[in-house]
Amino acid sequence: MKSFLSILTVVAALIAFWYAACVPMNIHEAAIQAQRAGVDVTPAEAPERRKTGRISLALQNTGLWSTVFTQERPQLPAPHQVAQEFWKTTWGMIERGRAFSKRSLILHGWITLSATLLGFAFGTALGIVLAVSIVHSRAMDMSVMPWIIASQTVPILAIAPMIVVVLAALSVDDIVAKGVISMYLSFFPVVVGMVKGLRSPDAMQMDQMKTWNATRTETLWKLRLPSSAPYLFASLKVGVAASLIGAVVAELSLSSNGGLGARLLAGSYYGQTVQIWSALFAAAALAAVLVWAIGVAQKITLKRMGFAQ
Amino acid sequence: MMAWVFGSLVFWLAAWALNARLSRLSATWVRFFVPTLFGVTVIVVWEGMVRGFGVNPVLLPAPSAIAATFVGEIPTLWGDLVQTFFKGALSGYVIGCTAGVLTAIAVDRSPFLQRGLLPVGNFVAALPIVGMAPILVMWFGFGWQSKAAVVVVMVFFPMLVNAVEGLQASESMQRDLMRTYAATPGQGLRKLRLPAAMPFIFNGLKICTTLALIGAIVAEFFGSPIKGMGFRISTEVGRLALDMVWAEIVVAAIVGSAFYGAVALAERVVTFWHPSQRG
Amino acid sequence: MNNETTTQAAPPKAVVEAKGLDLTFQTKDSPVQALKDVNLTIDQGDFVSFIGPSGCGKTTFLRCIAALEQPTGGSLTVNGMTPDEARRNRAYGYVFQAAGLYPWRTIAKNIKLPLEIMGYSRTDQDERVKKVLQLVDLEGFGGKFPWQLSGGMQQRASIARALAFDADILLMDEPFGALDEIVRDHLNEQLLKLWARTDKTIAFVTHSIPEAVYLSTKIVVMSPRPGRITDVIESPLPKERPLDIRDTPEFLEVAHRVREGLRAGHAYDD
What we know:
The structure holds three protein chains of three kinds. Chain A is built from 14 helices and no strands. Chain A has helices at 2-36, 46-51, 54-60, 79-89, 91-95, 105-136, 138-151, 160-169, 174-198, 203-211, 216-227, 229-253, 260-269, 273-304. In chain A, helix 6 crosses helix 9, helix 12 packs parallel to helix 13 (260-269) and helix 12 (229-253) runs antiparallel to helix 14 (273-304). By secondary structure, chain B is mainly alpha-helical. Chain B is 81% helix and 0% strand. The longest helix of chain B has 36 residues, at 185-220. In chain B, 46% of the residues are buried. Chain C folds into two domains: 14-91 and 170-268, Rossmann fold; 101-166, no CATH class. In chain C, helix 3 (107-118) packs across helix 4, helix 3 (107-118) runs parallel beside helix 5 and helix 7 packs across helix 8. The model of chain C has no long low-confidence stretch (mean pLDDT 89). The chains are: A mainly alpha, B mainly alpha, C alpha/beta. At the A-B interface, helix 1, helix 7, helix 8, helix 12 and helix 13 of A face helix 1, helix 2, helix 5, helix 6 and helix 9 of B.
């Protein structure tokens, strides 16, 4: 309960800061529109106004402040504008029975989500398999592990456009292309985390297995895998967020077939800033839900396994 | 042509056998040799497959072609590097990380704010912030400043979270000791809490090196003057000149690892006392 | 007849005076009375041990003296001032259960930590470091880092740190608890020698009956629920004490009295 109030305060402060930032960000546009409507603006000449800084323009025209929150194409949409657009394209669409129309964020969200989950599932599976082989084979450990650790410093997302184009040229489905990128991004945290986790049982527990003459497979299933559960969940959280980012960035190059990234790109081409922001928020909301869902699974599983903290 | 395929497969098997035997030893040179041999094997097999099966260079260029392009285009690659890394990523990194640490220190005196800031910060750090790139390009223009802005936004929250955790890391016993010396909060910060926070701060700094480079490159997908690594990648992909794209990726890999390595080296020097550095 | 030369012992100066001291902690379930009606005077030059089972309030009392806890009732003065004023006057040195040395500072720099905070000059700092390293028998280790020293040596460094500045009072909270018995014996001996040389007033919390009896001039036996003083024993043992004194009948008698006090306070009950 204590932290709830703190979180609320911080979020409220951020929203207040956002509203305050709308004023200098949108003041130039507000001045143009006000002048068209015949209202006095300081300075009155457009060229002079263009040279005026945002903050000083805002301070010189306090009467215009209320108009910055309701512009059609604001530089910085106000929180309520984003919320309204978000609502319109999600719940509003459902109400009108057009949940999957081209404008609906639900459709786009679903497109992105399916690619994310596909990539995430494969990335996790591959990651676990590789981790198990690394832990059991010194050759794998010494040859592959350094590359995996090193690759974490490489900006993998930079390859996204290339992979997308190559796979498209091979007539591979869009969702697979995005899924490949997502898989690649979620694979690394899972490998690193699982290797740590599979190696986490201490020497004492391993010795105990030896005294029972357990085979390596038995040790894997009965000791190593259960011990790695907390590490796995931590990696899954990082992995799912990375998968989502991968899918969104991939969509930026594949904009023709929908998805939140495509919406983002479309918004930036047509100057529809509110659309950009609401797509961004949809992606953020999706990320939050996915991480939260894993968190719930984590809590339940770890509690049943006695890892409860 | 199949000779290439067979040759590379033979090489692979031989290298694998060699690595399998070498991995039983634990000499230091072995620890460097084995992954290097593995990497070389990958390149050899790649070259063999591409040449042997006559893979379309538009889809997957051979390593030799990439190397040739790399050497031939060094001026362009360097110009792109300066634009993306030194101007965009590095400046954003410095500004964002400094802001994160300063904010953490500012919030340090208020446990109330800290309790709110940590969860919010963790949450924001997991979001696809890179999606803000088009917005920031709209605000700051096409130049390197917008890329730096993207990096600042991407780097700020992870750095903030790590710095806040670091400042909380000093044990209550050591803070009590400071109280018995009647130390001022400033003295406590300088002599205890900041040094104790360094392992966490460096953890954040290392994570942020990757984020910075990614942010700068991806931001350039959205609009850039005619140079920059992201710009080059997206345009060359459009022209299907994939060897140039791979050359840029090689540069990105080298720079990424070097950047991370530099920060890790600094970490060794500053946090020499931490168990993780003592081995 | 030289009556004038008959020296009359100066009346003992009270360094710590607790009267009717109460401390109740408000916890989530129910309030816990850590200290109830504690009355105690510690005089200048005393070596007072506090002994009792967990939860009897001995550490809490020590922390009250150090102004690390606030009593909820009664009065407590240190050197005639409130504990917090005494703290701000840097009247005492505190030694915790763990050495708590900063791993990023050498031993010498660790000892300089309070000196830096309190504003001693550089030359003064160096002198004091040299002096206290000698006192705790760690000469030559000033340039080492804490992790290069054994547990016993780290604790000695922690004591040196508490002695470096001019505080007449030394508050020690189970400083040797984490060490093995042989090292403990050695450090006990050294602590007594140190006390004799520096003439400080020492308040010492411990779990170990032999340690309490060996070190102190006064033993305070405490019991829990609520934390209170069960017995205050003025030790009849002489000030000069070799380790062998622990096998003498006088020693065993005092130890017996301590045990009786603990039993009376239900320390041995389930």
